[in-house]
Amino acid sequence: MRKTFNVGDPVRWNSEAGRASGVIIKKITSHTKFKRCTHHASSESPQFLIRSDKTEHVAIHKGTALRLASAPAKKKNKAARTKKNG
Fold first, then answer.
1. pTM
2. Sheet containing 58-62, strands listed edge to edge, beginning at the edge strand earlier in sequence
3. What is the mean pLDDT of residues 55-83?
């Protein structure tokens, strides 16, 4: 389990709807208001702004809730698949 993460790292976490994944877009190291809630972060205990891969939803999570994930697979377009197969 990794305690520190960097911008651009692919991560996963458990959400209310099940397992989710996304990419870190910002490291937060000071108290921040986000969606009417104050998130208490510091350089010793940072929080991370993350964009979900599936829904593009943006949320803040503590580093303790995150796990490093493999990079998401790039989607191939349909034309490339049909050309390859036939």
1. 0.75
2. 58-62, 47-52, 18-28, 10-15, 67-68
3. 75
